[in-house]
Design a protein that fits this description.
- The chain contains three helices and six strands; from the N terminus they run ααββββββα.
- The protein is of the alpha+beta class and about 170 residues long.
- A hairpin with a 2-residue loop joins strand 4 and strand 5.
């Protein structure tokens, strides 16, 4: 028995149509999968950004207390140096610093570094033996989370010294 050529064409035509449809559906599925993967990545990124914004808000509220704690601990009276209560308070300060580190909070204390307007806020330019643009004193430390600066370090910056400029001209 011979098969009718029209039936073969129809069958092969249906196969071609089916293969095209399968190809189209496969492409649509692949696009959908890619879109979903991109969506998941965006959601993770947005979630991380929201977490960092929340950390920034909390840190901004805590900064004055942290500054006061640091200031108090750096001016411990000599008669309290061996005091167990004072030592306990210093331990609490170390714990706070450790927890901030664990949360990705970095303290900016730029003594003797080059001034960087992205990380530092110049409060005063002072005459100094240090080269111009070098930080001579940190008034209040800065803080950053990742690459974002929550508060720049407030610093005094060397303007160089007139004496060293004069002596350089004479050489």
């Amino acid at each position: 028995m011979k098969q009718n050529p029209k039936i073969k064409r129809n069958t092969s035509g249906k196969n071609v149509e089916s293969e095209q449809k399968i190809g189209e559906l496969t492409e649509a599925l692949q696009r959908l999968q890619a879109e979903f993967e991109n969506y998941k990545k965006r959601q993770l990124q947005e979630s991380a950004e929201a977490m960092n914004r929340a950390k920034e808000m909390v840190l901004s509220e805590l900064l004055p207390a942290l500054d006061n704690f640091d200031l108090a601990s750096s001016h411990l009276p000599a008669e309290l140096e061996g005091n167990s209560w004072a030592q306990g308070m210093q331990y609490v300060g170390q714990q706070l610093t450790q927890k901030l580190d664990e949360l990705g909070v970095k303290k900016i204390v730029p003594n003797n570094e080059q001034f960087d307007h992205n990380l530092h806020e110049a409060i005063e330019h002072v005459a100094s033996d240090k080269p111009e643009g070098i930080i001579t004193d940190v008034i209040t430390p800065g803080y950053q989370i990742g690459d974002r600066v929550v508060r720049p370090a407030r610093v005094k910056v060397s303007g160089g010294s007139n004496n060293s400029k004069a002596s350089n001209k004479g050489e």
